[in-house]
Amino acid sequence: MRHTGFSIIMPTYNQAAFIRRAIACLQRQTYSEWELIIVNDGSNDDTEIYIRLPALNNSTSTLITGKL
Asked: Where is the Glycosyltransferase 2-like domain (predicted)?
């Protein structure tokens, strides 16, 4: 189990226009003991496309997707 100082849970639905900027802002933080959990509630725009690569390329990110 990975030790993290805190978790950021980011729920999203149809936020393709804003999600990349929000993720990039978090990834620029200098404090390294955190994890990002993105919960995509079945968006029907390009939200999942924009979050899939940052989530998969960053070991501190987890992507949960589907209709919740």
From this structure: 7-48
Q: Answer whether residue 49 is part of any domain.
A: yes
Given a contact cutoff of 8 angstroms between Cβ atoms, the answer to whether 38 and 10 are in contact is yes
Residue reference for tokens 């496309």: 49
| Distance, CA of 3 to CA of 14 (rounded, Å) | 31
Q: Which residue has the tokens 């589907």?
A: 66
Main-chain phi, psi angles of 24, to 5 degrees: -60, -40
Q: How far apart are the first and last CA of the chain?
A: 25
In a domain, 11, yes or no: yes
Query: Residue 59: pLDDT above 80?
Result: no
pTM assigned to the model: 0.75
Q: Assess if residue 42 is contained within a domain.
A: yes
